[in-house]
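Deliverable D5.2: sample structural annotation.
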Amino acid sequence: MPTYVVLLRAVNVGGTGKLPMADFRALLEKLGYKRVETYIQSGNAVFETSAKPEKIVSDITKALEKHLGAPAGVIVRTTDQLKRLIDSNPYATAAAANGALVHAAFLAGPAGKDAEAALAAIVTKYPGRRDRYTLNHDAVYFHFPDGAGETRFTGKTLDKAIGVIGTGRNWNTILKLYEMAKGRENS
C-alpha cells in the first residue's frame, strides 16, 4: 500500500488552528488510513492508503473543516516526491551545516506564471535580508542565513506571489518525514 506524507498549513502556529496531534491521528484513522503516525505539532503525518492524492486532499480537507470549524490547507506528497525534493535541494550544503536555516515551501500545485518575478520583488523590497530562494515547480526552497524569524517570505506573502497556497517546513523536519515514510517501505 502506498505511503503518503500530509502537511497541514497554519495548524498550531501563532495560536491559530489548534489541533492536537492525537486528534489529527484519530481523524486520519477514521478516514481509513493505515499506520498513521504524526510528527511534531505543526500538522505532519505519514500514513498508508490506496486512495489517490486528490481524494486524500479532499477527504482530509472536509474532515478538518468539520473538526476545526474553519478550512485548513492540506498538501500531500508521496515518498518519491519527497525524495526528489530532497535530492534537488540547491542549498544542500547549508542544510547539512544547519537544517533549521533551510526550508522548503510545499505548494498545492504548480507555481503561477508570474511567481519568479514576484519572489524576486520580495527580495528587492527587503535588501537588508540575506534570504535566498529557488523556485522549483511545486516547491520553493529557502536559505535563511540570518534565521527564519525575520523573513519576509511569509505564508500570505508567498500565496500572493506564487499564486497557490503552500506550507513550509525546515530541512530537519523534511528529512525526518522522509525517514518515517521511507522506513515503511523497508518494513
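Annotation notes: The CA atoms of residues 23 and 67 lie 9 Å apart. The two ends are 12 Å apart (CA to CA).
The annotation will be released with the project's public dataset once the embargo ends.
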